[in-house]
C-alpha cells in the first residue's frame, strides 16, 4: 500500500512544531516530499544490485531481494513505442530505466538484442549472425531504437518496451478554511472537478428565483464515459444562477457539455447547459492530492528524510542531527 501524503505531512508538522521550531508550508513540503521519494526510489536499484552479490535466503518474508523487487514492481511498465519515423521507434515518454525491448514481428515476440554501431556492422557482415525477425538486433540512442531487419511498413506497435517509470510528484492538496487555515483535500489532483465551494457559472438559462438544497443531479453529457457529482443551486434572479459543487466529480474532460435536468431545478425539462473549462478542474489550483507511490514500509525513512531537509529550511541543526542519526541507524540495521 502506498503512503498517504496527509499522514506524512501531519507527522512532519507535529515533530517540527513540538518545540515551536518552525513551520513547513504545503509548497515546501511538496517539493521536499517529491525529492525524498525519488531518492528512496533510486536507492531501490542500488540496494537490489548489492543484494544480488550477498548470501540469499528463501525464508518467507526475509528475502531482501524479494522485498526490494516488491518495492519497484509497482513502477514496471510494458507498452509499445510512442512513435515511428525514419525506421526508428521512439521510447515511451515516461521511461525512466530501460529494461528490454521485444520485436512483435518475430515468433512469440523475441527480445531485441541491443548492440553498438560497431557490433551491428560486424554482425551484418557475418553469414551466421545476420539479424532476422526471430533474432532481431537494434541500436539504441537519442531515446530511439533502430531495429534490424527493417520493417517494410513500420508502426509503433512493432516494438514493445519493458521499463521502469518514474514516480509521480507528491502533492498535498488543500483549500482555505473559514479561519484561513489549510484544510487537506483528498481528491485526486488533475482528474476531478473542483470542489469545496467551487462554482460552475459558464451557462445562460433563465431560472426561477430560489435556493435548492444539495442533491445529485440527473444530467446528460457529451462525454462518452460521464462522471458524476453532487451540487447545490442558488438562483438569485432569472439569469443569475450559481451551481456549487459539493462533491467532486470525475470522468470529465475540458470541453464537455453537461445538461442538467431542469425538472430538478423547477424549470421544466430544459435545464442549464454547462461547458466545462480548464478552470473547472483542480489542476492548476491548490486542490487535489497525489499520494506517495512508494510502499508504506518506507514511511519511517520518508518522514526522517523530509525532516532532515526541513531542518535546513528552518535552520535548526537539532532537527538535522536527530534525523541523520535515525537514518544512519535504520540503514545499518537494514544492511547487516
Describe it.
- The structure is a single chain.
- The chain has 336 residues and is of the alpha+beta class.
- It has 3 domains: 5-72 and 296-334, no CATH class; 76-165, no CATH class; 174-280, no CATH class.
- It has helices at 5-16, 26-52, 64-72, 117-125, 299-313, 317-334; strands spanning 76-80, 83-85, 88-90, 95-103, 113-114, 137-141, 144-148, 159-165, 174-176, 182-184, 199-200, 210-215, 219-221, 230-235, 241-247, 257-260, 273-275.
- The strands form 5 sheets. The chain has a 5-stranded mixed β-sheet with strand order 2-3-7-6-5, with no helix packed on it.
- Strand 5, helix 4 and strand 6 form a beta-alpha-beta unit.
- Helix 2 (26-52) crosses helix 3 and helix 2 (26-52) packs across helix 5 (299-313).
Amino acid at each position: 500500500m502506498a503512503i498517504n501524503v496527509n499522514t506524512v505531512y501531519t507527522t512532519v508538522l507535529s515533530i517540527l512544531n513540538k518545540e515551536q521550531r518552525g513551520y513547513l508550508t504545503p509548497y515546501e513540503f511538496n517539493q521536499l516530499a517529491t525529492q525524498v521519494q525519488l531518492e528512496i526510489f533510486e536507492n531501490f536499484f542500488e540496494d537490489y544490485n548489492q543484494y544480488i552479490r550477498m548470501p540469499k535466503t528463501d525464508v518467507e518474508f526475509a528475502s531482501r531481494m524479494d522485498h526490494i523487487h516488491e518495492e519497484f514492481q509497482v513502477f514496471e511498465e510494458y507498452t509499445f513505442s510512442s512513435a515511428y519515423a525514419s525506421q526508428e521507434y521512439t521510447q515511451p515518454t515516461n521511461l525512466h530505466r530501460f529494461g528490454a525491448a521485444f520485436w512483435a514481428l518475430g515468433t512469440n515476440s523475441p527480445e531485441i538484442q541491443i548492440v553498438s554501431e560497431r557490433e551491428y556492422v560486424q554482425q551484418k557482415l557475418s553469414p551466421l549472425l545476420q539479424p532476422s525477425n526471430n533474432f532481431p538486433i537494434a541500436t539504441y540512442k537519442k531515446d530511439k531504437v533502430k531495429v534490424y531487419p527493417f520493417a517494410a511498413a513500420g508502426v509503433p506497435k512493432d516494438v514493445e518496451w519493458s521499463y521502469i517509470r518514474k514516480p509521480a510528484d507528491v502533492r498535498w492538496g488543500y483549500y482555505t478554511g473559514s479561519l484561513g487555515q489549510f484544510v487537506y483535500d483528498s481528491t485526486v489532483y488533475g482528474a476531478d472537478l473542483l470542489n469545496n465551494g467551487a462554482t460552475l457559472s459558464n451557462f445562460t438559462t433563465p431560472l426561477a428565483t430560489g435556493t435548492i438544497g444539495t442533491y445529485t443531479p440527473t444530467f446528460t453529457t457529451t462525454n462518452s464515459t460521464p462522471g458524476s457529482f453532487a451540487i447545490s443551486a442558488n438562483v438569485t434572479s432569472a439569469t443569475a444562477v450559481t451551481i456549487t459543487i459539493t462533491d467532486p466529480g470525475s470522468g470529465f474532460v475540458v470541453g464537455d457539455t453537461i445538461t442538467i435536468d431542469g425538472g430538478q431545478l423547477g424549470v421544466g425539462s430544459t435545464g442549464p447547459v454547462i461547458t466545462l473549462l480548464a478552470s473547472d478542474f483542480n489542476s492548476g489550483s491548490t486542490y487535489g492530492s497525489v499520494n506517495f507511490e512508494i510502499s508504506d514500509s518506507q514511511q519511517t525513512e520518508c518522514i526522517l528524510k523530509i525532516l532532515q531537509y526541513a531542518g535546513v529550511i528552518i535552520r535548526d541543526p537539532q532537527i538535522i542531527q536527530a534525523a541523520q542519526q535515525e537514518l544512519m541507524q535504520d540503514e545499518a540495521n537494514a544492511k547487516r
